[in-house]
Specification:
The longest helix is centred in the N-terminal third of the chain and has 40 residues. The chain has 21 helices and no strands. It is an all-alpha fold. Helix content is 71%, strand content 0%. The protein is globular, with a radius of gyration of 25 Å.
Length: 507
């Protein structure tokens, strides 16, 4: 258990991660004004869906708590006088969704019959004095468990496919970012006294004729041999490792902001003027994907929110968190585009300081910022690989190998090979982040939370009644149903725009 302030700090650290390193490049190519507007909109929508996840988590806790009461036969004496046998039989299996009942019901099932509504209202009245306690968030129920509880078979399959595609993209980004950072250090003169050999992938890196892409793939092979074996073990992230990476992240980001501000001041003194574009429509699709990726936290909210001691002002604290993150992203993006200009911004922002003696001529700082993605991303890669392996095992549980040993080899291999193969083909971090955030990321951040809270409310209403759901202390401030439909419409419109843009660019 930890305090509200610590919980908010954990969520802040979760959101402000690798995506922030790809943000300056996306802002530079989309235009600084339109980027600020889109960042504000996407940050607000991410906050809304985060409150959806918290409300769904509270209803899931109520459902599990109701099951526990039923198992202990504690609820019988409280409701038996208010329900006849027929009503009780119809209400009892609601909480536990067995395979037969859930598979036959659609993902967006129609409202319950009038009789079921009446029974639900009776249940809500009979336990009205314990509604607030029942909806208290005390059990960590991950999104996968909530999908099992509230979705039918088709909905669960769609959920796992969306999560798995997102995790594949996440791992591909990590697998490309680490060797690319190492390659740029190996192929460049980190001292300002030498000449930098950074450039395109086809540029010569070493005197023996290796291109930069060759060196990148060699280092990717080293990264694979070093990190892939961890996928076959149950790796857990210790709190000390989390503290270490958090400290490194904050030192690096503060350094980059300060150095960028100093570079802006230096450029003004030297009469060098950098005027980035205000708006560029062609850069919006990629900015959308990168921004969605940069605000991603919904899949980890249950594990971060549950241990918080006092959850009374949770939505307000999250609002402050998102406001601070927006200001932070705006600060790092604005200082980047006005310090380097959109044409000079690299897809991993730390590389700008590693390759530019104008930004800093301190060798230690250039090494530190150049290696920063290596330290932080390498510690996350095995953990996400294990998470992906577990999700693959859950998705293909019906056809998984009967041998436990074969299963332990098959699913980690399926988790490791595709993202490594994608990283061998391309090291374009901006495109990887853009595609991952635009499609799978939009599903995880917008569609799943919206449908999850919609089904959770319907499911909870069948047990406790609509009045109890409306009085849930953890209900989203955006409780009206049209917020859910707005989220779904927004997702469809944005993905359509992004897809059409990608098609037009290709042709």
């Amino acid at each position: 258990m930890y305090s509200s302030a610590a919980g908010v700090a954990y969520i802040f650290n979760l959101i402000v991660g690798t995506g922030a390193l790809a943000l300056p490049n996306a802002i530079g190519h989309a235009g600084w004004l339109i980027s600020i507007i889109l960042l504000f909109v996407l940050g607000t929508l991410s906050y809304i869906t985060t409150t959806f996840v918290i409300e769904s988590l509270s209803i899931a806790n109520a459902c599990y708590r109701r099951d526990k009461k039923d198992d202990n036969n504690l609820v019988v004496g409280r409701v038996v006088n208010n329900l006849d046998d027929d009503h009780y039989r119809s209400a009892s299996p609601v909480t536990r969704r067995d395979g037969k009942s859930s598979d036959k019901s659609p993902l967006l099932s129609p409202s319950s019959s009038h009789d079921n509504d009446q029974s639900a209202s009776h249940v809500g009245v009979s336990i009205n004095g314990a509604v607030e306690e029942d909806f208290e968030i005390s059990k960590n129920i991950e999104m996968g468990e909530m999908a099992m509880l509230f979705f039918n078979k088709a909905g669960r399959v769609c959920f796992y496919i969306c999560i798995i595609v997102y995790l594949y993209g996440d791992l591909a980004i990590y697998a490309a970012a680490v060797p690319k950072s190492l390659r740029d250090i190996a192929c460049s003169s980190i001292s300002c006294n030498g000449t930098s050999s950074s450039g395109s992938n086809e540029g010569i890196c070493w005197s023996n004729g290796f291109t930069r892409m060759d060196v990148y793939r060699i280092l990717l092979g080293v990264f694979t041999v070093t990190m892939a074996p961890f996928a076959y073990f149950n790796v857990q992230k210790t709190k000390y490792l989390q503290y270490f990476t958090t400290v490194l992240r904050w030192i690096a980001f503060i350094m980059m902001i300060v150095l960028a501000i100093l570079l802006i001041s230096k450029n003004k003194r030297n009469g060098k003027s950098i005027t980035p574009p205000i708006a560029n429509v062609s850069g919006i699709p990629n900015l959308f994907g990168v921004s969605v990726y940069s605000f991603m936290c919904q899949h980890s909210i249950p594990s971060l929110v549950t241990p918080i001691k006092n959850k009374n002002n949770l939505t307000r604290l999250l609002f402050y968190d998102y406001a601070l993150i927006f200001l932070f992203y705006a600060l790092i993006g604005m200082t980047a585009v006005f310090a380097f200009g959109p044409d000079e911004l690299q897809d991993i922002y730390t590389l700008n300081f590693q390759d530019s003696c104008e930004a800093t001529d301190v060798v230690f700082l250039r090494y530190f910022l150049g290696l920063f993605p290596v330290f932080t991303i390498s510690t996350n890669f095995p953990i996400i690989t294990v998470t992906l392996s577990n999700n693959l095992k859950a998705l293909f549980s019906s056809c998984s190998p009967s041998s436990p040993l074969l299963s332990r080899i098959l699913f980690p291999t399926l988790a490791v090979v595709p993202p490594i193969a994608a990283a061998f083909v391309t090291n374009d971090i901006t495109s990887l982040v853009g595609y991952t955030g635009s499609y799978a990321g939009a599903g995880v951040q917008y569609v799943i939370p919206a449908l999850l809270v919609l089904m959770a409310r319907r499911h909870g209403s069948e047990i406790y009644g609509e009045t109890a759901i409306r009085q849930n202390v953890h209900k989203s401030p955006f409780f009206r149903k049209w917020w859910i439909y707005l989220m779904l419409i927004w997702t469809v419109v944005c993905l359509s725009f992004v897809t059409v843009n990608h098609v037009l660019v290709r042709h």
